[in-house]
Amino acid sequence: MDPRAAAIGGATTGSPVDTLRFLTCGSVDDGKSTLLGRLLHDRDLLTDDQRAALVRESKKYGTTGDDLDFALLVDGLDDEREQGITIDVAWRFFATGRRRFIVADCPGHEQYTRNMASGAANADLAVVLVDARAGIMRQTRRHSFIAALMGVRHVVLAVNKMDLVGFEAARFAGLVADYLAAVAELGFASVRAIPISARDGDNVVTPGPRMGWYDGPTLLQHLEAIDFAPEPLAESFRMPVQLVARPNADFRGYCGTIARGLVRRGDQIMVAGQDARTTVTRIIARGKDAEVARQGDGVTLLIDQQRDISRGDVLCAPAAPVALTDRFEADLLWLSQTPLFVGRSYFFRLGTRLVPGAVAKLQHRIDVDSFAALPAERLGVNDVGRVAVALSAPVASERFVDCPDLGGFVVIDRQSNATVGVGVVRRIPAAAPAVVWHRMTVDKAARAALKGQKPAVLWFTGLSGAGKSTIADLVERKLYAAGFHGMILDGDNVRHGLNRDLGFSEADRVENIRRAAEAARLMTEAGLIVLVSFISPYRSDRAAARERFEPGEFLEVFVDTPIEECQRRDPKGLYARAAAGEIRNFTGLDAPYEAPLDPDVHLRTVDEDADSLAQMVIARLRGDGFIS
Length: 628
Fold this sequence. Notes:
The chain is of the alpha/beta class. It folds into four domains: 3-225, Rossmann fold (3-Layer(aba) Sandwich), CATH 3.40.50; 234-316, Translation factors (Elongation Factor Tu (Ef-tu), domain 3); 324-427, Translation factors (Elongation Factor Tu (Ef-tu), domain 3, Beta Barrel), CATH 2.40.30.10; 444-623, P-loop containing nucleotide triphosphate hydrolases (Rossmann fold), CATH 3.40.50. The protein has 17 helices and 28 strands. The strands form five sheets. Strands 7, 8, 9, 11, 12, 13, 15 and 16 form an eight-stranded antiparallel β-sheet that branches. The protein has a six-stranded mixed β-sheet with strand order 2-3-1-4-5-6, with helices on both faces. A six-stranded antiparallel β-barrel has the order 17-21-19-18-22-23. Helix 11 (468-481) crosses helix 17 and helix 13 packs parallel to helix 14 (539-546). 41% of the residues are buried. Residues 1-17 and 75-88 have low confidence and may be disordered.
């Protein structure tokens, strides 16, 4: 639907039993909390205790003189009340005779963008506030873009503080035109513009007599009437499995929330990626048996046959099955102060499935002012970009516009477990010809047996000057003397050829390690014992390297040397050059080194000489059966 057309209309049905989830957002001081407080007050939705607290705290924290400060009803944190701003997302639940509501009051400051994105991810409608004096701000555009990104289809443009511009109809009309032009490309299904004065209550619950030129609904009337959800269809049924319930040997139920469509008792369903069909014999919802369950219902399904179904699988309708994919294009909102680097391994959570993966390509960054696509090498905090994602295993996924629960994802840092990004799947490429590993007659095991050894990777990590290459060289010499076949991949040597196109930025370091891991993997196919000597400063990159090998084949060897000793040795003069400012982003000085938390082999160089440490590595190889 054209947003311009929607601005003067808006579908109306409003069931007495449905629930509308909406958020309030916009720039700082546009009056979001005041609007919600006024709505709750004027609709008589406050308890006596809440009214008394509002009177008491308006005197203590209020910014409206002797009048009630309605923002204090939803600004629950002490910092928020003292500063007069919203920091966290404040959730409120209320109901009228027409509809139930869940509302999120989202912060306006740019540094709390992750909070706003969290509110938008669970909303059907966004109330975007604009100060009638200030007009459309950068944060207005940012919040509107994030709302669209998170799948919000309907918008109310609440032009607030009309009392401060003399209730001018022309000012309202101009701001509406500006906003519709700004969001024309975002594809909202409807945009309803309402002039309000949140402080005084004009057009919030009751019509504002001072704006007789406006003949549309009040905010509450529109929220009660808007038709926001399509009727679910059985053919589109999807349910990610959250839990397999086995309270006893006679009961096996598959628990989850229906992401799309509906399911009836007796329907045939299937597991995404599997051909076999099964029949739903029982539906349990809210603790009771049900004949039908719809989108948004939390249910337990029982089926007529034993199937291999576990958490992370997706149940779907056979008429429109969900495909599995390990690659897709997405819009990604980056939330971390540490930038996104292409190629770095993260965890991606889609539905109930958690899989490792990486951003394989950053296609462009999206400018929040113009929504233009700009070239970029990385994403910083609050940046949005179009990316290509590659996962380590195929998952059931769909475009976000088709099924938000299967098309939305979060990105998780592998070490801190912090959420560093949220995204939505925009396009799933058509299935490409399968790239299958070609198994040779003479395989890895045969090549290794010929050499009388088992293939392995010894991944030497530590600071520059720690002694990695020295110890690795001694280990290979001992292997050679004993008749075993090894090969060293040294960080400096690899940069002369395979990685000569890479610099020393964080993104290049990630790619440097990825290529080294792939080269080492090919060498294990030759049956070799590969000694990789790279600083490899990030735990996530070393963890991603380990995943490329068979269980037990990868040994992380931590060459543990204090930085003071590395600086004293400084065999290549690099620390001196870094101290002089000639080298930037030098690991251990102005770039981090994340020491292994639980290395397979821990070599403390200040306690032993290099030959003894090399012998420790040889002993570990013998102990694990790599050499005899």
